[in-house]
Amino acid sequence: MSLLVTNIGELVTNDPAAAGSGDLLGVRSDAAVVVEDGLVSWVGAAADAPAADDVVDAGGRAVIPGFVDSHSHLVFAGDRAQEFRARMAGESYAAGGIRTTVAATRAATDDELAAGVARHVDEMRRQGTTTVEIKSGYGLSVDDEARSLRVARGFTDETTFLGAHVVPPEYADDPAGYVALVTGPMLAAAAPYARWIDVFCERGAFDADQARTILAAGEAAGLRGRLHANQLGPGPGVALAAELGLTAVDHCTYLSDDDVHALRDAGTVATLLPGVEFSTRQPYPSGRRLVDAGVTVALASDCNPGSCYTSSLPFCIALAVREMGMTPAEAVWAATAGGAAALGRTDVGSLVVGSRADLILLDAPSHVHLAYRPGVPLVARTLVSA
Ligand code: NIG
Ligand code: FE
User: Going by C-beta distance under 8 Å and a sequence separation of 6 or more, which residues neighbour residue 19?
Assistant: First the structure.
């Protein structure tokens, strides 16, 4: 079966060849795309398009690659609306709220957890996300972390073991014992269902030495490392990610000049999560500063019930443009090709021959409208590679 999407007014390809000529998004006008067996098989001018079994007429609207959301925490039960309400009334965000969700998650059945993930993945899909990374981290026991990842695996291959989210209450007096649990039996139970291992490297969670130990154990078990770092204040996490040559480090809210240079030199992707700053009232980091320094930037949702309960990458794009100094093109790139880079993927995030046929038809003439019309459901249709 082949499908021709034609009469595309603006096609965002993210073709790296075009980026070399200064067009970051590799935009083509009056374009068409052919999809065969779930892959892009042809890209060109609509006037030259070959015949196909089925045809979608884009009606002059824009088509962009599906969003790649490289950071979410969808395996959870309950919500923290009261905490959000208190925060909006002046309370500050504290990572301790994570324990509220841990208690609710432990009490939920597998089916309840899976139903929650399904609901949120569907919500994401309707907003254009076609690849999603999902973390554990609200189980924090051997069984609850393993089942969190097993549930997540039912929805994506991009699963991340985050047993080192916070120290759970039963280990409050023995953080070293908890690190030993995470690097021992918990990792062994989680690894079959995970591709990545992550640590919340932050004051009140895990320090740099603990993060180093946990990432090393994960790598020995075949998982690739990533970090939550520099979210609540300056800290050692971003420098550690660069030193270890990690694929990506996420949050990056508080960065020194040395951090920025280290990210650039290491080629580690900085994943910005502006929905977190929106929901916690923390200062937005400057995407402009990172892009200008030559750092690869990704935008992700961080969808979770505590620090950021949005599943919408269009919303994050709008925030990145309005609050982080990124151009609409940079923000759209960061939510597509940038997300792919943050997951070490080359088959998603762009629309070139051979890439997965994950694409979004926008109810708009150009990608700029994603930032220009915040809050408006502009995703008319999402096509996902079979
Ligand atoms: O990415 N930073 C740590 N973890 C989540 C927050 C989780 C929560 O508050 O429940 C985050 O922001
Ligand atoms: Fe997170």
Answer: 26
